[in-house]
Amino acid sequence: DDDDIPQLSSHTLAALQEFYLEQQQREGMKTSQGFNQYSIGSIEEDWQLSQFWYSDETALCLAKEAVLAAGKGGRIACISAPSVYQKLKEQDDEDFSVCILEYDRRFSVYGEEFIFYDYNHPLDLPENLLPHSFDIVIADPPYLSEECLQKTAETIKYLTKGKILLCTGAVMEDQAAKLLGVKMCKFIPKHSRNLANEFRCYVNYASGLD
Asked: Would 13 be classed as within a structural domain?
């Protein structure tokens, strides 16, 4: 008896077909000539991993700030901030090096600059990541929790020579100041999709974000 078999409505079926078509078109763009693997959106957000990409403008602004803060020949570490990393890689004319510490192994396509990172094990890092070897560390902890910020802060303090650029919720202001000595900037970061929580940037140096 076919009566018990659930059927998709024509509207739902059309929406599903449209989704698959868009997915195919995106994949087609990725394999076509001239595709930039570092462009924002080249790797899709995975909300199950609490991923929310910055808008193009915000990622560029943060990338430029990091380059200025790092200085000529500087080293930049991006912790759970892949869209800033991607923007940094687009800045071919600048003199700096960068690596990305990220839980999502899809970013291993970036080769040796990718370092697998789990905030639950903040100091479980490769031997070649020497302490205090980065001119600036940019971090965007994946969860708005004291535990997540506290553990990510351990990694930040281990890696940075001093400068910190933290991106997290406004509700974490007191904890961020306590753990990292950072202050909220006037600059308001935006995401490609709106977040429910107010989001802000924090630094511990004189930055261009005020």
From this structure: no
